[in-house]
Amino acid sequence: MRNLRITLKRSINYGKLERIYLGGEAEVRIYENVVEKVRKPKRYRNKKLDDIIRKNRTKTEAKIISLARRNGIPTPIILDIDGEKIVMERVKGKSVKDVMSEEVSREIGKLVAKMHRAGIIHGDITPMNMILYGNRIYFVDFGLSFIDERIEPKGVDLHVYFESLKASFDNWEELKQAFIEGYMDYDKAEDVIKRAEEIELRGRYVERRI
């Protein structure tokens, strides 16, 4: 099995390393043809426990990416998993933040509906975590994702997206409405949208108390 892994790695054409992003949870290395995501050690945790947590979260992320793809959500193809590292194909396109429109936001709504129908909670739905390539929108970061059928986490997903629109675009209200139109493909859409509104009100209440 170990020899198979070595052979597989040699068959991947990485190309030239172009840039590195340092996030809170992981280091992302962008090569010409692939993307490597490596979860960083947490010094405040016991090393053995930290290794287990990072490896388990890496496996979970890879499984959810594959599940999303099987349910019609464009994602990078997983090429290799090795401990706390995932190697994925590189999707060469434009950040959704740079090409956002009502049409794009409506399509995102449709894709999130598919995601939630499959029980996938993304955890960080923002324009920065999506790439437009051709006429398809790819979700490229599932680092905070998990599986959950409850309305609450789905409402949080929508709340995060709506807040990202509000922070980035002057026409955020039109973009939000377009997303909702697309999201209505989901049979529990009304319940989730209502929960997202409740979550927003909770945040306002906390702000007033502070």
The CATH class of the largest domain is identified as Mainly Alpha
What is the residue-averaged pLDDT? 91
Overall SS class:
alpha+beta
Radius of gyration: 18 Å
Count of helix runs: 7
CATH structural fold name of the largest domain: Transferase(Phosphotransferase), domain 1
> Which architecture of the largest domain does the CATH hierarchy give at level 2?
Orthogonal Bundle
Basic shape: globular
* Helical content (DSSP H or I, runs of 4+): 40-55%
Short description:
50% of the residues lie in helices and 20% in strands.
Task: Output the keywords.
Phosphorylase Kinase, domain 1; Transferase(Phosphotransferase), domain 1; 2 domains; five-stranded antiparallel β-sheet; three-stranded antiparallel β-sheet; 50% helix; disordered C terminus
Overview of this protein structure:
By secondary structure, this protein is α+β, with helices and mostly antiparallel strands. The chain has 2 domains: 8-89, Phosphorylase Kinase, domain 1; 94-209, Transferase(Phosphotransferase) domain 1 (Transferase(Phosphotransferase), domain 1). Helix content is 50%, strand content 20%. It has helices at 2-11, 47-70, 96-99, 102-117, 151-168, 172-183, 189-209, and strands spanning 17-22, 26-31, 34-39, 78-82, 85-89, 94-95, 120-121, 130-133, 136-139, 146-147. Strands 1-2-3-5-4 form a 5-stranded antiparallel sheet, sandwiched between helices. Helix 4 (102-117) packs parallel to helix 6 (172-183), helix 5 packs antiparallel against helix 6 and helix 5 crosses helix 7 (189-209). The longest helix is centred in the N-terminal third of the chain and has 24 residues, at 47-70. The chain is globular and about 45 Å long. Residues 1-8 and 205-210 have low confidence and may be disordered.
